[in-house]
C-alpha cells in the first residue's frame, strides 16, 4: 500500500508542486485557456487514475507484488488493460500528468509531462523489459510479440493470437 501511495504521490503531486514553486513565474503562468478546459483536464486525469488503480490492483491480486521496484510482481500479469497495452500503468500516470498540464496550462507542467514520458520511453525498453524477460522468459517474449508497449490494441489479446 505504501508503494501505491508513495510513488504516484511523488510523481503526480510532490514533483509538479515543487516545480511550480521553484520555477520562475514565466514558466508557471497559464499560456492558454478555453471553455471546458478544466472539465476536460479532470476527465483525462480521472481516466489516468482509473488505469493506475486498476493496474496496481491487478499487480497485488494476480501478480503477488506491487509497482515498487523493491516488491515487483512474482507472476506476469496479462489481465484487464494489460491485454491491450504493455504499459497501462505508466500510460495512466501520463494521462494524469496530461490532465495536470491541461488544467495548469503552464510550461512547467508541460516540461514535467515530457520529461516523465521520455524518461519512461527510454528506461522501460532498456532496463525494465530486460528484467521482465529475465524473470518471465518465454511468456514475456510471447506477450511482447502480441501486445505493443505504448499503442493499445483494438481488441484484447486472448493469449491465443
- Report the β-strand fraction as a percent range: under 5%
Overall pLDDT confidence: 91
Q: Which class best fits the helix and strand makeup?
A: mainly alpha
Radius of gyration: 17 Å
Number of helices: 6
- Low-confidence blocks of residues: none
Question: What share of the residues lie within helices?
Answer: 55-70%
Oligomer class = single chain
Largest sheet, described in full?
none
- Spatial gap, N to C terminus: 35 Å
Provide keyphrases for this structure.
6 helices, about 160 residues, mainly alpha, about 0% strand, single chain
Give a written overview of the molecule.
- There is one protein chain.
- The protein is mainly α and 161 residues long.
- It has a domain of 112 residues.
- The chain is built from six helices and no strands.
- The longest helix has 30 residues.
- The N and C termini lie far apart (35 Å).
What can be said about this structure in brief?
With 161 residues, this protein is mostly helical. The chain contains six helices and no strands.
How is the secondary structure organized here?
Layout lengths: L1 H21 L2 H4 L8 H27 L24 H17 L2 H30 L1 H9 L15
